[in-house]
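User: My collaborator sent over this chain with a note saying "see what the structure looks like." That's all I know about it. Can you take a look?
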Amino acid sequence: MKKIVCLFCFLLSFSFLEAQETYTVDGEMLELKTEVDGKLDLLWNIIDGKYRYFVRTENNEITELKNTKVDGKFQEQYKTLLNELTNEAMSTKKLNLTLFSLKEFIDDYNGSVDSSYQSTAVRNKLHFRLGVFGGFTNNPFITNPDNLTTPLFGGELEVLDAGQISRHAAFLQVKHVLEQDELQYSTTEIALGYRFRFINKASFSFYGNVKFATVNFSDATVVTQNEGLPTTESFNQTAFDVPFIFGVGADIRVTENSYITLAYNELFAVFLDNQGNFSQDFAIGYKFNL
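Assistant: Without extra context I'll predict from the sequence alone. Here is the result:
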């Protein structure tokens, strides 16, 4: 068994070493991954929390693709460089400085100048992340006179543009709020939402959420007084709402393909009334790229 584990670790290490190599670019030692290999090569990596991209010509000259900002305006040097290297054979007007966009451009160019070139670009422009989370909530949109908090847990599928992290994302979330003795209420919620990243770095992002459509399957037990005697009533309810519930969150990158997530949800809703308690809806989770 130990031999198998050691062999597995060795193969992983070998694969990792094959995936990236060390290059010297303008006097800087960099470990770069080869994304496209042809007449023009595309190299890249995340260095000090930033995406950096490079092209390598057939004579092994490596040049960084840059897009610096001067007086608030991006200079788009990467477009000028690629126009020169491709003899303006292809338009760079709509070319973005993202991994997918650059990969598609260089892949198309290589195919146009080399009939034996094998395309490697994947045309799917959607990127998926799957996550799980847990936390607690005081259910701010239901009657909760003692402001009690209860545990919650759930999962989420997030859909983004391919390549570099997009500021815009859609998500499908399933959340379950547990019942407790003092607050006999539980619900399973399925929600569709939109997310915008105000801070959008490779290592960290901060965003706002809005859940614009929800379906809740709720169970509640209510104790009322009937002629001085307590009466217990149980309710089962399914409700579809368009509540526009707003919250905030953050993703902290821990590996190349995974993140720790922090969320402060249900701050307020446009079409649901707060029942008197300020929101205490917090969660921590883990998500990874599919």
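A starting point for your reply to your collaborator: The longest helix spans residues 2-19.
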